[in-house]
Amino acid sequence: MESGKRAIETLVAAKAVCSLDVQMHMSCTGITKKMADDLLVEAMDADIRSILVLRGDPAPGKSDWEPVADGFKNASELVSYIRHKYGDFFSLSVAGHPGKHPASSSKEEDLEHLKQKVGCGADFIITQMTFKASEYQEFVGSCRRVGIDCPIIPGVLMIPPSLEKLRAVCNHCSVEVPEDLVELLETCGSDKEKVREAGRVYMQRVCSEMLSSGAPGLYMYTLNLEKSAQEIVTNLNLKVLDAGMSDSAVRPLPFPRPREKETVRPIFWASNAISYLTRTRNWSADFPSQWGQVNNEKSKAGDHSFVYDPLPSGDEDNILYSHHSIVGRRLGSMAERRNMWGESPSTEEDVFDVFERFVRGFVPRLPWCDRLEKETLASGILKPLATLNHYGYLTINSQPRVNGAPSEDEQFGWGPRGGHVYQKAYLEFFCSPGNLDRLLEALGSHPSISLEAFNVNGGRRCVWTDSLGQRNKTDEANVVRCSPSATLLSPSPLLIRQNL
């Protein structure tokens, strides 16, 4: 149920912040009819009208799928329940398997199950990922022969930047990787950009063939490989529209179109994505160049949403989203939080101690950050950070200075291979007005340091130094990370506070 509520929060954020049309995935795994009603009522209240209904995978720790008491035995039952109780409020889609569902004994049996789902009220079918237009065409023909006449949208996978990851994804979904695709990617060796581009070209051809054969659209399993999906949509001259919608009916995103050509992006807003998007909606810039990294430990701990390791340093497409990146960090139960941060902090020093112990590795996470970054651990700044926290400068984000590190560097590298990374040191923190006064007084003897401070009421105090070392007031972005071979620069996240 927790994952269902998290999904609703994510979808609501996507609708409210990004003006996107969204689809909720709803499986039968572990939910009772009451739990289903709770989620469906929340979806109605949020005006979420599209649902992909799935049976789902076995519950964590189980090898076989089992229904729960007063739950649903399969997707057909859930489709029928939604349709009879909620009428036509929701558009319902179901999954089809061109290569048959792994639990079915034959393709014929699988088609009968699919026909039953459609007969119970599904509006259209989305297929499991398929790599061949001929396989999709054969599947559509088989569906038509047994009386399934609703639209069937092919699911297509954006190829991850390594053959190993592709095999892992397909193995998880019980889908075979075509031999010709394997051979193609093997010729790319370990060059991840070549693998991604070769996979993109391969899937673009598949998409074109599917559309030419009459596919009503494409359902892209992106793996958050935004670049590949965007290139295919652009190259095939596709439009992301709902059925029956005209260009003029599509709501514009809350950020202006020129942001697509941005050159400067905030670098660290994994913990506060909604705030970033809303606070910067009037900027001439778009999404951040670095978001939260996915942690496969969650999968090992029982969270079976399929997640992937982030791409190594030096990869251009290091934009992978965790399942909770839009709606905030999962901080644990009340008991877990008390265990981490103390039963009842009663003094400022008690709070200082929590932050200091996080930096020293004795507290696992804070509401603003769930880990120390690799570059923080490797740069030798942990001791100064601990000292700052001890004296009431409560750090939540920092960056060490870097002068010309290779873009492939394990700790500091980013962007295309062959580049060099330059970083200004910065620090983001909470502090009291008294500590701020002491800091501003000390800045007089350090003319190269800039500072911006904001209070809860929006009040601002600023000491700014330009590239010539001159003190001034400015609203321009202060670039603190760049790579000569990359197209994106990163300003200080402190600057975002100006847009409150």
TrEMBL record:
The keyword Oxidoreductase applies. Belongs to the methylenetetrahydrofolate reductase family. Its cofactor is FAD. Signal peptide: none annotated. Pathway: One-carbon metabolism; tetrahydrofolate interconversion. Pfam families: MTHFR, MTHFR_C. One of its GO terms (molecular function) is FAD binding. InterPro entries: FAD-linked_oxidoreductase-like, Mehydrof_redctse-like, MTHFR_C. Keywords: FAD, Flavoprotein, Oxidoreductase. PANTHER family: METHYLENETETRAHYDROFOLATE REDUCTASE, METHYLENETETRAHYDROFOLATE REDUCTASE (NADPH). SUPFAM superfamilies: FAD-linked oxidoreductase. Coiled coil: none annotated. This is MTHFR SAM-binding regulatory domain-containing protein. Residues 258-457 form the MTHFR SAM-binding regulatory domain. GO terms for biological process: methionine biosynthetic process; tetrahydrofolate interconversion. It comes from Guillardia theta (Cryptophyte). GO terms for cellular component: cytosol.
